[in-house]
Amino acid sequence: MRKIIAFSLVAAALTVSACNTIAGVGRDVSAAGSAVTQGANDAKR
Fold this sequence. Notes:
By secondary structure, this protein is an all-alpha fold. The chain has one helix spanning about 1-45. The chain is rod-shaped. The mean pLDDT is about 85.
């Protein structure tokens, strides 16, 4: 029973950290996309 609880806690911790990592990557990609869009708009002018 203790092994199951320990495994569940480790799995939950990994899941939470993975979600934070994916959210951070999403923000980085969004910021890069905004920079490219701004550069394209500046080039048009």
